[in-house]
Amino acid sequence: MACPEHKANNFIKFISVLVAVVLIVLGVLKFYFTKDIPILVGIWTVYWIIFGLLLILVELNVKLVKEYFGFMVEYCGKGMFVIFCGTLMIDSFVDPHIVHESIVGLLIIFAGFLIIIVGYSAMPSQNFPPPPVPV
């Protein structure tokens, strides 16, 4: 039987890779289907792709990426980064015709909070000693 930390870690890796794939796919599709993309929106879209690739590299345990982005090793850091990526996608206030990106952005923000909550709920408590093992 797997321990809760192992299950939580697998779940968080799955959510992180899913968010990364969504960021990359939506970024590529936005460049492909948008004819006259404004400069600022184009920069945001490049950030989606770069951040998606960064999330995948962190999950693949690339040493160089973990060295420079060490905050993404912890649950809170990774969750806050995913929340930040979700906020980049909310641009319906800029262009009210693009609502689907804002909905995906809100789902990514929810995934970031989920990473934080699941990560810290599966960690062993530091205040209480572990239960005694029956002999």
Secondary-structure content class: mainly alpha
Summarize the main sheet: none
The arrangement of helices and strands along the chain is: HHHHH
Report the count of strand segments: 0
CA radius of gyration is 18 Å
Give start-end ranges of low-pLDDT stretches.
none
The gross shape turns out to be elongated
Structurally, the number of domains stands at: 1
Instruction: Bin the helical content.
Output: over 70%
Q: Kindly report how far apart the N and C termini lie.
A: 19 Å
Beta content comes to under 5%
Give the overall average pLDDT. 83
Subcellular location: Membrane
Keywords: Membrane, Transmembrane, Transmembrane helix
Protein name: COPI associated protein
Transmembrane segments: 12-33, 39-57, 69-90, 102-122
Secondary structure layout:
Blueprint: H1 4-33, H2 39-59, H3 63-68, H4 75-89, H5 100-122
Helix pairs in contact: 1-2, 1-4, 1-5, 4-5
